[in-house]
Design goal:
This protein is mainly β. The chain is built from two helices and 17 strands. It folds into two domains: about 90 residues, Immunoglobulin-like (Sandwich), CATH 2.60.40; about 200 residues, no CATH class. Strands 1, 2, 3, 4, 5, 6, 7, 10, 11, 13, 14, 16 and 17 form a 13-stranded mixed beta sheet that branches. A hairpin with a 2-residue loop joins strand 10 and strand 11. The termini are far apart.
Length: about 325
């Protein structure tokens, strides 16, 4: 019996014995690089943001570069030396033109010089917006939207679609009051005080778009909830991107205005958005493959992209979609 107990105890010690080995990983200290981020369009002047890359073990905030020299070029001709305004943002008062090639060169102490280029692509127009009201199994209405366009015959067109909602609301602001007065015998006499003033405000919100269209990819980046896609499958064709639109409001309003932004974007900006979106999706997945974010900055990191856009809108009667109202 004692032998059996001894054997069992011995086996227990064998199976509970833990081996531990410390593996030291030597992560080399890489030289920091300049990070450039800028997206230009013909409707805005130029703004470029400069920071520096961070080591994988760094835990400090993003470090802005405020002492760089930054130059802006059109078709390889210098337009201006950009001026630093705040927090690593450099600007110049110039509107880029469609069809032109633009470049940015930047240099700063202790960093390699960087350069990035892009071209302003022509806009593609929305030819038509179609809407269809459908009903689910509970008889709740949903709005299906088609954005119609004609893809240009040139290869390599890239797009973003996103939307926002605008509405006007009236409410009583009880932090304000109105005083009724009467001028009598050279004196001003208060005859009535009313707390609460009717206020009319305009609101704008980003709205979510959902689609099963096979050519689009959903993105949630930088305040944009929409789609990116290329013309790889639809080159030179007329096409309609179909998606579901969430109709809702958190205040009482007579109408909702939905504005759609159909953007033609540069190739590098397209691949930057795709890979950055994939990187964000993989951050919390321990089994995901590493994602390398696309960059077109020589000797540095980041993106210098461009877009043009066509904008169209529809007006919705919210009373048709009251089941989606947060408040009324």
């Amino acid at each position: 019996m004692r032998k059996i107990v001894f054997i069992l105890l011995s086996l227990g010690l064998v199976f509970t014995w833990a081996c531990e080995k410390t593996i030291e990983i030597d992560i080399e200290a890489t030289k920091p690089r300049l990070v450039l981020n800028a997206v230009i369009n013909p409707d805005s002047t130029i703004a470029v943001f400069l920071s520096r890359s961070m080591h994988i073990l760094d835990n400090q905030n993003v470090m802005r570069i405020t002492n760089a020299r930054v130059f802006f070029y059109e078709d390889d001709i210098e337009i201006a030396e950009m001026q630093h305004v705040e927090n690593g943002m450099y600007v110049c008062d110039y509107y880029p033109k469609i069809g032109k090639k633009y470049s940015v060169k930047a240099s700063a102490k202790d960093f390699d010089d960087i350069k990035a280029s892009c071209e302003i692509v022509p806009p593609v127009s929305i030819t038509q917006i179609d809407t269809l009201t459908t009903y689910d199994e509970y008889n709740n209405p949903n709005l299906v939207v088609d954005i119609n366009f004609k893809d240009p015959p040139e290869q390599g067109n890239y797009y973003i679609i996103h939307a926002d909602m605008q509405f006007t609301s009236e409410y009583i602001d009880y932090s304000q009051f109105r005083v009724d007065t009467l001028y009598q015998n050279q004196d001003t006499v208060i005859i009535d005080t009313t707390w609460g003033i009717l206020v009319k405000n305009k609101f704008r919100e980003v709205v979510g778009l959902n689609s099963d269209d096979m050519i689009v990819e959903q993105i949630y980046l930088g305040g944009i909830s929409g789609f990116i896609f290329s013309d790889e499958i639809i080159n030179s064709q007329s096409y309609a991107v179909k998606f579901n639109l969430s109709i809702y409001s958190w205040v009482d309003t007579d109408e909702l205005k939905y504005t759609f932004y159909f953007k033609s974007i540069s190739r590098d900006y397209y691949y930057y958005l795709r890979t950055l979106n994939a990187h964000h999706d993989a951050v919390n997945d321990p089994f995901a493959e590493p994602v390398f974010v696309h960059s077109n900055v020589e000797n540095g990191i980041g993106v210098f992209g461009s877009f043009t856009q066509d904008v169209d809108s529809i007006i919705i009667d919210p009373s048709r979609f009251e089941y989606n109202w947060y408040y009324k």
